[in-house]
């Protein structure tokens, strides 16, 4: 039984607890979740016309791909809890972490051979950047330390990842003189099926050619730009990046923290293009949404380069690195994912969202409707009224969390057709209300 009444809990929450991108004290009352099971969140108090259960349209930000309280994941974490919940990773190792690392190497593109386990996505991006900068330092090119990305990206909230987030969306003007100055290309042309625009390619090549001497790496989110604006682009741009990076001696980092583990219709978005980056970041769905864990994978060449340096180690080591509980959850989540025809489930959700959102393009104020894999997006021509849109979705029995001009969903892969239809209806209702 909960120890606090919902009213007390909300009063303490408002007085003391920061929420993501929130003011202090809080101004909007969050829903109190009591428990969650399958694709449903159980609320402590009724909301919007007396509903106490909402279908989760967000997978807790891309993470809970198998839904909540999955018996296999629960059992894996319990079993691990019976052995140890944590031990330090310096000088010690354990099966959950080793199995996970070997598995990640096996399922990601071939050249990626080495795994650094981090405790959040932002830290994995930090580590990826450190790998690249240290590689160039070790190989006698310390001046190669800037990063190039395209606009519209999101790579996390710590400072170096922030420096490659979209400069407008990431509010770089607040951080003048604090963020390292990176290079930005325009956003890639929209559309998964759009052909490569040769003008864009030559513009990008021009940037690389001019800056090759100072560039350590290009970092992008492949195929789906997530929190930077939910835009999709063609895999052809990933092949373009691979070619240009090879031509100009620049490393390539794919941030697959949102796209990894099937979300975009391929196990990794890089697979749509058949290219491998030099470094890949994973997170979010890695543990099926159970615990915080992320990873940065790199090629043998990067690891060798780092080892040849004056400081022949990768200088990073989080306290909770390789946490056994998180690794056990990740191993079980991968067993579940790869033990089924996940691509069929993602396609099924893609079809359900496409059908269910088709009518949303006729809603006044809707600028664009797009679906890719198990991701559905309705973009408005104005900023969303978040409280009104959230309540409209809740009235349809669905949890959504719109932002900026976007009402969007990425449901758990276990969401059944009826609930996918309900989610699509809720996205549409939220777009009408927002
Ligand atoms: C969420 C996200 C991150 C940051 O991950 P955290 O675990 O929130 O630190 C980085 N890159 C991408 C593409 C993301 O979607």
Automatic annotation (TrEMBL):
The modification N6-(pyridoxal phosphate)lysine is found at residue 284. InterPro entries: Aminotrans_3 (IPR005814), Aminotrans_3_PPA_site (IPR049704), BioA (IPR005815), PyrdxlP-dep_Trfase (IPR015424), PyrdxlP-dep_Trfase_major (IPR015421), PyrdxlP-dep_Trfase_small (IPR015422). It is an enzyme of class 2 (transferase). It is found in: Cytoplasm. Pathway: Cofactor biosynthesis; biotin biosynthesis; 7,8-diaminononanoate from 8-amino-7-oxononanoate (SAM route): step 1/1. The keyword Cell division does not apply. GO terms for molecular function: adenosylmethionine-8-amino-7-oxononanoate transaminase activity; pyridoxal phosphate binding. The record marks 21 as: Participates in the substrate recognition with KAPA and in a stacking interaction with the adenine ring of SAM. One of its GO terms (biological process) is biotin biosynthetic process. It catalyses: (8S)-8-amino-7-oxononanoate + S-adenosyl-L-methionine = S-adenosyl-4-methylsulfanyl-2-oxobutanoate + (7R,8S)-7,8-diammoniononanoate. Pyridoxal 5'-phosphate binds at residues 121-122, 255, 318-319. Substrate binds at residues 61, 154, 284, 317, 401. It holds the Pfam family Aminotran_3. Its cofactor is pyridoxal 5'-phosphate. It comes from the Bacteria. Its EC number is 2.6.1.62. Keywords: Aminotransferase, Biotin biosynthesis, Cytoplasm, Pyridoxal phosphate, S-adenosyl-L-methionine, Transferase. GO terms for cellular component: cytoplasm. Homodimer. Belongs to the class-III pyridoxal-phosphate-dependent aminotransferase family. BioA subfamily. Catalyzes the transfer of the alpha-amino group from S-adenosyl-L-methionine (SAM) to 7-keto-8-aminopelargonic acid (KAPA) to form 7,8-diaminopelargonic acid (DAPA). It is the only aminotransferase known to utilize SAM as an amino donor. This is Adenosylmethionine-8-amino-7-oxononanoate aminotransferase. It comes from Kitasatospora aureofaciens. The gene is bioA.
